[in-house]
Amino acid sequence: MRRFPVAAPSRCLTIQCMLRACAVGVLVLVSLGSSVAVAAAEPEPAGCTYSLTSPTVVNVAGVDMVTATVDTGACEGAVTFQTVACIAMDGESSPGRCAQGSGIVPAQVFFQPYRPGATYTATGRGCAATGNPPQKVCSENGPLTATL
Length: 148
Known about the structure:
This protein is 18% helix and 48% strand. It contains one helix and eight strands; from the N terminus they run H-E-E-E-E-E-E-E-E. The longest helix is centred in the N-terminal third of the chain and has 26 residues.
């Protein structure tokens, strides 16, 4: 049986030798602990904030319509690539109408026919790319409801 060279037991019986061995052990544990703490401290992917406007009535070329907009706010380490705004009229069998904006261009949806006294619901979504490789981060807005 082959034996690896090991210090003689009598060599490490001094206090100085024991303290040195403990110090090395503590340094190893501290370095392992600090690398774990650094890895755990990385932030989650940030995105952008988006604002959704309440449904409002606008007149477009002499025709009353209901509109809502999703606009990009502040971005933290991300780039907006899409916004979506949707409007639906309560009590209608149709799913409503949606419009899409590309990049930082706001999404604005127009819904017709406008019926005075009806209740309209707006929802929105914004999506951004963040990180390397880029990851898609989306956030939902709404619903916002208004009787117009």
